[in-house]
Amino acid sequence: MVSLKEKLVTEFFYDGDNFVEYFLEHKVLWLNSDDVIEDYNKIYLPFSSDSELQINKARVIDVKGKIIDLDESKILTAEDEESGRTYKYFAFEGITKGSFIEFLYVVKRSPLYMGKRITVQASYPKSNVQFDLFSPNNLIFDIKTYNGVPSITEDTTNVNKNHYKLRIPKIDKLENEYMSAYNASRGSLIYKLDKNTANNSSNIVSYDKVSQNLYDYYYKDYSKNTVQAINSFLKELNISSTTEEEQKIRVIDNFIKSNVYSSDIYSEDLENLDEVLNKKVANETGVLKLYLALLRSLNIKHELVLTSNRKELKFDRKFEANNFLTEFLIYFPKHKKYLSPNANNTRYGFPAPFYTDNYGLFIKEVTVGDFKFALGKIKYIKPVKAAMNLDTMVVDVSFDDEDLTTNSIHFERAFNGYYAMNIQPFTNLIIGEKRQELIDGIFENISENIEISKSEMINDSPNLFGVKPITFISDFSSNDFVEKAGRKYLFKLGKLIGAQMQLYQEKKRVLPLENEFQRSYFRTINIKIPEGYKITNLDEINISNVYNLKGKELFSFKSYYSIEGNVLKITADEHYRKNIVAVDIYEEYRKVINSAADFNKIVLLLEKE
Asked: Which value, to the nearest 10 degrees, does the dihedral of the CA atoms of residues 484, 489, 493, 494 take?
């Protein structure tokens, strides 16, 4: 697939007393595979309830030069059943390999000028890429380009209006690599309205203004009725005055995410705090109001944080634009921890991981005498450290005296932090057979060929998330780990830790690797060597791959052993203490990842002494 032309034009315009935006998109694409044809036989238009489709044209030019124009009947409307949102799209027909499709449309819409991103790079090469922004003379825009896109130029020959333009003869394709922040890495630009000379206003998009506006909206004084409703709600939480502050926050977080239904529908009732307190149904705004109301009532100091998802868009701390302010966090400075109010699968201390390791706008309440106001400051959102995200195994293995191909195994596995996130907060919802299936499934992931005699789950209360690790314990037997080869026995040591990721890289890495969160694995395997036998290839256990930067160990896999009597003790620990792996150290990261896969392949050889 190749783009032969891409023209994007946005014009801000005074239409009588109305301020509107006209947006034009014109593309010519060459499609030369069945998969690409399947992907591009529908082109969706940016249509919404407050926009008008002014012009729409589309056509197919096949390999023989035949032109197939799409008439109005091929501009279709569809509705998303969940959101109720209406879509319009071109429905192309007659596309064969080697065909061109060309489409052009103009939309009149409410103006977007507080921060708008235009992405110009894709997974296919482009030629003749153009972007134009027009505005009345009094409206001055600020535009910044990213990821190798040339700077915008201003056309000063146009005296009737402002004209900002970008001309790129060729843009190379950017392929989506495994575990990359692909969308955040694509060439793009962001524009915002900066000044209006007609009224001498400047710095129109200002985080100071955003901070104060959000503070005024979310931190209003409550009426007597609202205060009573908040107090009634708090009684349901059974929070004692002697409860330590972090536990209060955990209780609030768990209760809201377990008992308040969150909807993505816009509704005044779903944003009305009184209605939310009464009905326990809210949208994202209503949920945030509820958190803040409870925290304020309990005098728990906190700051409101706005940031972006770093996989989609890196927060630029030097260019203030509202499109960076898409995700809310609540920060507790006393404890230096965050929570994500609108991410239902997260809990206090472990916010949505892609919102961390990024910058954000921190909004703090400041009191001077009787006057209260907001202070906004851009700060770094530290990720949760690897030491808080643990996957820990302790395994005891013995061999059957009569049949060495059968093992008895005692297996304990504990999960902390993000590793417990998908289980521990929801254990109260997992009951009956499903509960036992969950427990047994932890061990059946290692091998389906096991016979479990006993299994249990401890520290399974949702309230213990972030306090104690959820732990799974099992005793089972299996003949899946040993094979007999003549007079020798082959013990599949590596299989005990389960299948491991292995990174292959046929091409040179282009984009940084982007992990969700830092993490550590601790594994201890104790093997009772059968009487009269020895293990002859112990050296294979010793694996060490470590990457240090400025004296700090960032990535490591270390496995080693010791023998005490007839017990072989094996340690295999693994650490990843950095989320974003730059291209120049990617090979070091890959070595460590692949070390775990190498350990997974270890087979110990047991021979008679």
From this structure: -50
